[in-house]
What does this fold into?
Amino acid sequence: MSDDGNLGVEVAIVGAGLAGLAAATVAARQGISVALLDVRSAGGRARSDQRDDYVLNQGPHAVYRTGAGSGVLSRVGIALQGAPPHPAVAGYRGATGDLAVLPTSAASLLRSPLVGIGDKVRLGRLLTTLPKVDASSLASQSAAGWIDSLGLKPNGVAVLTTLMRVATYAGDLRLISADAAVGQLQLVLEGNVVYLDGGWQTLVDGLVAASSTAGTRLMVGERALAVAAGEGGTWEVTTPARTVRAASLVIAPGGPDAARALLPRTPTWELGSPATAACLDLGLRSPPVTKVAFGLDEPLYLSTHSPSARLAPAGGALVHVMRYGARTSAEDRAQLWALAERCGVTEGDVVVQRFLHEMTVCHALPRPGAGLAGRPGIDATDLPGVFLAGDWVGPVGLLADAALSSGEAAGHAAADRAKSVALPIDGMVGR
It folds into this structure.
């Protein structure tokens, strides 16, 4: 640090969500001096809250066991501790339709009354062949268009649409490319998901610890205000307290609007629509009668996350109820409570509750016609040495998978650039 309080490092990273934490960890592990800004609430949407011995994620969260994010976490030494979802899944049609077995496998497909014989055959064939489909070849169409092309009856379409909504967290499948959506279904079939013991805060704490151990300087409370070109090819990040000068930057402040606001030149990214959700998080005295239920006509979800994972006191349960695609607070809250009651939850069962309206699930879905490969790349700033990371960046994965994979890629790129450019930076922490 220089006498005037300013700081020189080789890599500066703006944003301490999963993407920024991953970038900081992999860059620092290359012997690079790294400063991580905007560490006011590390983890962003991956943070968990604890209330009366119940651990509440920011709505329902799950890690895809064979997804890109799991690979990133493994490479930085973070092991996943938890359990898969409850296997018994119910589905229903209409406001008064009976809860019935929702086909999620060949065995449940045979028992489900929700689809006829013809669609049982078609869906069974699809579940068998889907792992072999080249998802990347489907980028030209929407997920909804791909489902329509399969020749299913209306009930079969409803079942497959429901499964794809759950896999992608996208409420309107017309807005997401089929390559991304089919890829998510393949992840579910290949390795399922895991609910994490202790909540997603365990991932955040693990990444903070890994980054700190590698030497990252965590600049708690220092918010990035602007980015500008410095002398000799360096970059400068202005905070309320100082100027941080770096050879490379990673911009990972959350969504594309936050990234645009920092950059010195307005980028011309082509982005898909954001995905939102309304979430009702319930800590219960005991598990509900129906532990997992999905709406076929409405984009609704209820799942008991604990047990399986350790998120509630002994005998208790942690239940997430969600609508894919938020509307008004009043109508969404009422609809989510109606689903909870339908599954056997009463107000007397509830110990803690929290309603989160219009949560951002994904800042920009992959667009039909462009697909995953059409998202902005980590180098889409068109500024040498300035890289992007986030759930809307890069050609790999959705949701946390995209955030972690783009963060890892941006961290490596920023470190490589810093090592390859001989830049004297005043006050730099040595390599």
